[in-house]
Each structure stands twice: as C-alpha cells, then as structure tokens.
Amino acid sequence: MQILLQACTDEPAMLSLLLVCRTVHEWTLPVLYHSVTFWNRRQIESFYAAHDPRGKTQDRLMLIKNLWVGDTPLRTGNLQQTHGTWPIANVYRILKLCTNLQSLYIIKLHPNRWNELESAVPASLENLAMGPIHGTFRINSLSSHPRLRRFTSYHSYMRDGEILDMVLYPSMRQFRRVIQGEYLNWYYAGMKQDSCISQSDTMEKMMLVVCGRNIDGTLLEQVTADLRDVTQGDQRVVVQTSECENGIELLFAEFREERAAHLAFLNRVL
Fold first, then answer.
1. Residues 6+ apart with CB under 8 A from 257
2. Torsion of CA 153, 65, 261, 17, to 10 degrees
3. d(Cα 193, Cα 175) in Å, to the nearest integer?
4. How many helices (H) does the chain have, and how many strands (E)?
5. Widest CA span of the chain, in angstroms?
6. Which of 2, 26, 84, 182 is most deeply buried (CB count within 10 A of its CB)?
7. This prediction's pTM
8. Dist. CA 270–CA 265, nearest whole Å
9. Which of 43, 58, 134, 126 lies closest to 96 in space, CA to CA?
C-alpha cells in the first residue's frame, strides 16, 4: 500500500496504475480525481466529452474535491479574461456534476461571466477563491446555498454590499483579500469596507495578504495601523505578507497542499 501511495505522488505513475488490475484501478481513481486542474479550453472540452453524462464515467466527477480552472504559475493557457475564451457551458456542466466538491479556484475568468456559473456551484463547496478582477460576487446569489467557510478575492474591487453579505453569511468564517505589494496603495480605496466585520459574531478572521519580495515596509506599517483604526482594533482583522510573487502562486500552492494533505491522510489510515 505504501508503494501505491508513493506512486500516487507522480501523475504519470498513477495513470499507469489504472492499468494494473481492477482492484488497483478502483483504489487509484479517488486519488486521481481528488484534485483536478484545467488550464486550457481543449482540456475542459475533452474532459467533459470523456465523462458523458449518459455514461457511467460521469460518476467519477463525484470524486473531485479540489478543482482549479485557469492559469497556474507554470502553465499559461487560453483561459484568459478575454470574453469568449472560456468554454462556459462545459465548465458549468462539470461543476453541476461535482457534487462533492469542497474547494474551487477560478482564475482569470472574464468579470462579467461569473453569473453564468453561479447556479452550478455545488452545495458541498466550503472554499472558493477567485481573481484577478473577478467582477461582482454576491454570495447570496448562489442558489445551492453552499456552506462556504472561506472566500478569497485576489486583486479585485468588491462593493460595500458584497463585503457585507460575505461577512454576514451564516457559514462564512474567513474572508481574505490578496494583493501584490506594488498595489498596496490601491487597497486604501476599500479599506473602510472592513469595518463591517463588527456586524458579525461568526466571522473568525478577515485577512489582507500582501504578496511579493520587495514590499514597502513603511507603507505596510501604515496600512496595518490605519486598518486597525478602521476596525477599532478588532483582533479578527489581520495583515500578512507572503513571499509568493503573486496571488496565483499563493493560491496554487494552497491547491497543491490540499492534495498533499489528502495523500497524507490516506497514508495514516491505510
């Protein structure tokens, strides 16, 4: 079993395991499908075609717990913010079938197209990250009413009403904004929005994460102090720095950590 788990850390090796025997095939599938990454249109179209809803393979989508759609730090595909580059219909259909999905990362979606995916978000979703410039996000518009516990907005402006709805959403525990160090001044435009955390008794943490290796320390201290004033020293509001170059790098590292944590869990229980 340890040999199988070790092989599952390498995707080509894991795909080879599917051919060994029926028992190994059935054991490997949940590991293979746990975390899925799409960075180009053809991948999405081929994946959906291979999991025809009329066939038995559609059940495999229920194994997906962790889904990334968009550029990664190492792969730049054609899923860009230009209108029409995303195969929205197929992304929608895939999401509808991912009924056990827990984490969803949507990167570089056109800001006017998120509303076309809202009704496909499964009720199982707990963690959602979007950006950069993700457009309007109204959490109460998610028709499945998922028990979202964590939302990350990367390099995006959000209106006062969007922030308030987020903070007051019953299951929400952590709201995080991620920006790059060179845009730290830009954050001032929305800083006063964070004062709404005082209206929530259930929110555990509101975070500002600043990415980059050359962050202006003086400006960061000023932002931290001003944010403390705006939120009246609420200890749930924190400012953190990350050496990741940008939000995509930060979020993808977290995406990979979720898969690693799943493998570590299997290693303990098997």
1. none
2. -140
3. 12
4. 8, 8
5. 62
6. 182
7. 0.91
8. 9
9. 58
Please give the C-alpha separations between residue 230 and each of 172, 219, 233, in angstroms, as whole numbers: 21, 16, 8
Say if residue 26's pLDDT is above 90.
no
Range of the domain at 185: 2-269
Does the N-terminal peptide bond of residue 73 adopt cis geometry, omega within 30 degrees of 0?
no
Strand partners, 36: 67
The pLDDT of residue 10 = 52
Number of domains in the chain: 1
CA dihedral 53, 59, 60, 64 (to 10 degrees): 100
Q: Is the dihedral of CA 151, 36, 69, 74 positive or negative?
A: positive
Residue listed under structure tokens 């792969």: 75
Binned at pLDDT 50, 70 and 90, residue 264 comes out as confident
What lies within 8 Å, CB to CB, of 125 at 6+ separation is 101, 102, 103, 104, 144, 146, 147, 148
The whole-angstrom distance between residue 243's C-alpha and the CA centroid of its chain comes to 19
Average pLDDT over the chain reads 89
Exposure class string for 161-197: b at 16+ Cβ within 10 A, else e: ebbbbbbbbeebebbbbbbbbeebeebeebeebbbbb
Q: Rounded CA gap, 160 and 64, in Å? A: 33
- Give the closest residue to 139 by CA, choosing from 108, 109, 116, 170: 170
Looking at 35-87, list the stretches that DSSP marks H as alpha helix, in order from N- to C-terminal side. 41-50
Strand partners, 105: 68, 129
Q: Which class for 10: exposed (0-12), middle (13-18), buried (19 or more C-beta within 10 A)?
A: exposed
Amino acid letter, 2: Q
- Cross-strand partners of 178: 154, 209
